[in-house]
Amino acid sequence: MRLEVDITGKTFRSAAGGTHEVLAPVKFALQSGEVGVLIGPSGCGKSTMLRIILGLDHDFAGHIARPPEARIGMVFQEPRLLPWRSVEQNVRLAAPDVADAKLAELFRILELEAHRDHYPGELSLGLARRVALARAFAVEPDILVLDEPLASLDDALAGRLRDEIATLVASRPVMTLLVTHSLDDAVRLGDRLFFLSPRPARIVAEMPIGIPRATRGEAEIAAIKASLAQRTQGDRTERDAS
Amino acid sequence: MLRLLSFVLFLAIWWIAALLVGGAKLPSPPAVLQVMIAEASSGALFLHLGATLARVALAFTLAMSLGSAIGYLMGRVKLADRLGDPWLILLLNLPALVVIVLAYIWAGLTEAAAIAAIAINKLPTAIVTLREGTRALDRSLDEMASVFAMPRWRAFRHVVLPQLAPYIAASARSGLSLVWKIVLVAELLGRPNGVGFEIGVAFQLFDTPRLLAYSLTFAAVVLVIETLLVQPFEARANRWRPRAA
């Protein structure tokens, strides 16, 4: 299974009548089992790109090749839970075929067991994010899309959730697309990093990470970050020189 | 408890006023109660109440289901909204009496004409309310349902309908009170039974106790339906909202 993204452009017509270019040509592909990370400044068009990839926005130039039968699991930037359904119902509505045992395991990993019958309005943001994660994983997705799943969480919780995401991604073959502006998350979770420019977004650099996720220790992560910093620094001097 | 107190207060004011004005214009509560009992034991009260309630139920169901469907369509589809809007404005501003009289002229003094006329009066407000509700639907939840490939019916039932429920409840509440009022006019003008018909007869005979007996029984029935049906539905629709402290 393979996801191919070839967007040649996307413009947005504002209410005032002007046209704004949101996306410059963007092209990349993702294999099953890979975690691709889109990193870019906020407002650069990442969410627009995701909406196009997910088939929510058809008004763009280019082509997306997505296996038609692929199941999608998505964690939106805001949890997007149904406030009028309980935590368990929220998950089951998205994943009606999920086995009880599987659901119990997900709830255990994400520490949601005590909240099954709560309504989303009764949850903290961190808990709601975890429910959104549980929902995305419960559908046993072929494509997993995570849009800033750890934003605005405190460091300790973000770290724990990141480990949980890594565990869940490792537990089944799935192609994952992670959008983040945190280099740390990108380096810890990603297999291939795509660095995006400010709006209109284009890929300025693509960087594979050779070390498998499971064997990436703190030392390796620091080394990757250092080499990244060097590269981006290099890019900048190059750009400044030209 | 407080409700009971307010009811007792109402009775007290009525009784005092009756004593001041005199029984011919405003009969005292026991006099009205006597008529009520007499009408109830002859069965006439239930017959007329039943006829009115049946008309209300039919017209209300018709208007609510049709109005909700049209309102939802107009909220979702721009073309339907553009096409339907002038009709809607016309219907909204058409006096109830005009609709009823025209219905009786065109369709004869029939049950169908009465029910259609009542339903047409309620229809536009149901459409407007549901259209507003549909416009206020959370697009981000629609997207969620679409990404997770929820089948249409499941998405409608679990994503859309709960968002519309408060609007449906509001429309039912205001619609019911509108229908209560209009049904009596329709009955007065062209039906041989029902509370409206009886009130018409009482008016012609200047029979105030009878008039009050029917109106108050009718009001009591409305109150009971409001508290037993409409309010619980509203509470259920809003159950998931965190309660205000």
TrEMBL record, chain A:
Q: Which SMART domains match?
A: AAA
Q: Which UniProt keywords apply?
A: ATP-binding, Nucleotide-binding, Transport
Identify the InterPro entries for this entry. Answer: AAA+_ATPase (IPR003593), ABC_transporter-like_ATP-bd (IPR003439), ABC_transporter_ATP-bind (IPR050166), P-loop_NTPase (IPR027417)
Task: Check the record and name the PROSITE patterns matching this protein.
Answer: ABC_TRANSPORTER_2
GO molecular function annotation = ATP binding; ATP hydrolysis activity
- Could you tell me which residue ranges the ABC transporter domain spans? 3-223
> Which family would the database say this protein is a member of?
Belongs to the ABC transporter superfamily.
Stated role: Involved in beta-(1-->2)glucan export. Transmembrane domains (TMD) form a pore in the inner membrane and the ATP-binding domain (NBD) is responsible for energy generation.
This chain belongs to which protein, by name?
Answer: NitT/TauT family transport system ATP-binding protein
What is the protein's species of origin?
Bradyrhizobium yuanmingense
Task: Specify the taxonomic lineage.
Answer: Bacteria, Pseudomonadati, Pseudomonadota, Alphaproteobacteria, Hyphomicrobiales
UniProtKB/TrEMBL annotation, chain B:
Please give the biological process terms from Gene Ontology that the record holds.
transmembrane transport
Q: Which residues form the ABC transmembrane type-1 domain?
A: 49-229
| Similarity comment: family membership | Belongs to the binding-protein-dependent transport system permease family.
Membrane keyword on record: yes
List, alphabetically, the GO terms of the cellular component aspect: plasma membrane
Q: What protein name applies here? A: NitT/TauT family transport system permease protein
Q: Where found in the cell?
A: Cell membrane
Give the CDD domains listed for this entry: TM_PBP2
Which residues are listed as membrane-spanning? 56-75, 87-106, 211-233
Which UniProt keywords are listed? Cell membrane, Membrane, Transmembrane, Transmembrane helix, Transport
Record membrane topology: Multi-pass membrane protein
- Gene3D superfamilies, per the entry: MetI-like (1.10.3720.10)
